[in-house]
Amino acid sequence: DRPEPAYTNAGTGIDAPHGVVVTFWRWLDVPYDFGGGRWLSLFTVNTDCGWSERVVTLGLDQPSRVLSPAHTDRNTFEPDAPAFPLRQWVRVTVYVNAHSGELHVWQDGQSVVHATFARPSTDLCQFHWGAYASGDNDGVVLFEDDQSVWRLAEPWTDMRREPWLDGDVPACE
User: Fold this and answer.
1) What is the 8-class DSSP label of residue 38?
2) Could you list the residue range(s) of the whole structural domain that residue 117 is in?
3) Are 127 and 56 in contact, with CB atoms under 8 Å apart?
4) How many domains is the chain partitioned into structurally?
C-alpha cells in the first residue's frame, strides 16, 4: 500500500485493480436537515478524466444525516449506520474499486454503507473533496483536513474493519 504522490485530476488517472482507500476529516455545522432535494456532497470520484462518465458521490441528502453514495447501482446501509455528527471532527474512510465496482464507507471506524456501481472505465480520476451542494443550502460551515488517497497492493476483503492506513507518510508531496 502506498499514498498517491500527486494530483490525479488530469491525464489517465490511476489504475488500482485492488482499489484505493481515501481518508478525510470533516467538521460540519448546518442549521437544518437535508432532504427534499437539499443535499451536500463531501467526496466525489470519477472513472474518466475527461468527465464522460458519471461520478460516484458521497454526501448527505436525508434528514437522518447518514452518509449516502449517489450515482451507484445499489446501496446497502448498516442497520446501525450512524448519523453524521454536527460541530465535531469526523473521520471518513472510503474504499473504492472500479474494477470490482464497489464502494464501502466507514465513519469514525464504524461501517456505514456498501455500494455497487458499474462504469465503462476502471481507472480512478477526478478525486474531489469539499462543499459541492444544491443551491438551497445556506449557513453551512464546513472545515476539511487531512485528505489522503492510498492505492492498495492487495484487495480489501473485511468490510467490517476500517482500513486505517494513516501514518507518517505524506499523501502528497
Assistant:
1) B
2) 2-151
3) no
4) 1
Task: Give the C-alpha separation, 156 to 95, whole Å.
Answer: 8
pTM: 0.88
Local confidence pLDDT in tens for the 173 residues of the chain = 455 555 555 567 888 999 999 999 999 999 999 999 999 999 999 888 887 889 999 999 999 999 999 999 999 999 999 999 999 999 999 999 999 999 999 999 999 999 999 998 888 988 888 788 888 988 899 999 988 889 999 888 899 999 977 654 444 33
Give me the CATH number covering residue 52.
Answer: 2.60.120.200
Tell whether 167 is covered by a domain: no
56-60 sheet: strands from edge to edge:
14-15, 123-133, 40-46, 56-60, 68-70
